[in-house]
Write a structure and sequence with these properties.
Largest sheet: 8 strands, antiparallel
Structural class: alpha+beta
Number of helices: 17
Number of strands: 10
Distance between the termini: 58 Å
Shape: elongated
Amino acid sequence: MKQEEMKKILEIGVSLSYERDYNRLLERILQCAMELTFCDAGTLYLCDGEALRFKIMRNDTLKTYSGGDGNWPELPPVPLQRENVCALALLENRTISIRDVKHCEEYDFSGPRRYDAMTGYDTRSMLVVPMQNREGEKIGVLQLINAQDEEKNVCEFNQNAVLAIESVASQAAITIQNVRYIRDIRELFQSFVRVMSAAIDERTPYNANHARNMAECGGRFADYLGTCKGQKRFSMEQKEELIMTILLHDIGKLVTPLEVMNKAKRLLPEQYSAFRHRMEVLRLRADIDRLAGRITAGEKETAVSQIQEAVRLVDEANEAGFAGDELLEKLALLRNRTYTGEDGEIHPWLEEEEYAMLSIRRGTLSGEEREIMEEHVSVTDKLLSQIRFPADLMHVREWAAAHHEYLNGTGYPNHRRGDEIPYEVRMITILDIFDSLIADDRPYKRAMPVERALSVLDSMANKEGKLDPELTELFIQSRCWNPEN
């Protein structure tokens, strides 16, 4: 074997060892094999159960090429039967070189003959090289057609070329197996992420599609930004890192108490039941006092009317998305109402804790409950710190733990400001807020119309200084929440 050929084989081995994209790897293997043997056409098959499947096909004379984009040629598989030369080479793990297939009766060449009849091609010499890994596992086959001499005449594959291809095939088999292992491990990890994300969403009926919706929308937003001047163009790996962050951004909610996360109204169910029971006792006492002659019919009607009004007020406050000043004033008056219990003690119509809950300005959570809810970000950081992310996913933990930070420093948990917040986190924050606003599965609010939600984002960006104004405007322009755009 010539020194130049040895050098080329070594170069090919190095290039194959660095390639991690499966489709490009298969392309590179066939391309290298054809270059080493100066042949005109070739096919790479991969073993699939009891058959060989076409993966990459190339014919320079006919200028045809298929399979390199991952969409494999739509041709019937070759059964692993000994009469098929490709199958035999793999079954016996030996290279088969044929001077002229038209004069060879040892193998079934009906396939090449049909191909020649359809295309006008002239298949002559053939080299079939099996690919097996070190453990003897069958990986696939390289089939090379029509070696050429210096004058481009079809000739037999020479022995040096055979040795070179056997070396390449051996390296290729190992590399394919390694890439498959990496792909399988990565898919296992991604499956774990999807399971964890689904577990978070399924833990509560009020968060059923949040991460999935964000991930789909985020992927489209990243694609859109790549078309905008001055914006980041996400590579496949960078986009994967972004989407994985989105899927894991709420993992800390796995330990958030459900009574906080699922709190649909301001009062806890037991608090509301206690209030209604108290009002029913007051109504019954009014009935008893009337029957006993201690109060008049008019006084009874007044008492019942006041009780009913108190119930209506509490119901209104309990379910209000926002408590305005008028509502708070009425609650303050109700808070001052008292009655004398059977024990002779003075009791309020509305307990202090009930009043505090009903007086929450926005949402359903008290200050203490909101702190518990916000802890999910710190828990997310703690949980993700236990995962050893590969280099191309090294930012997942940092980004996920920062998705509630605002540019003006009012976010949490670290009150980061301005340039301290990465580009990707700014994107995720916009996605998170938008999906929360339009979600129709939240217990504490109604779904907001899209245009109203966009107005809220615009205000948070340009008036409050919380969101990135440029990214917010691009998000609005992208319409990426609609898969049809």
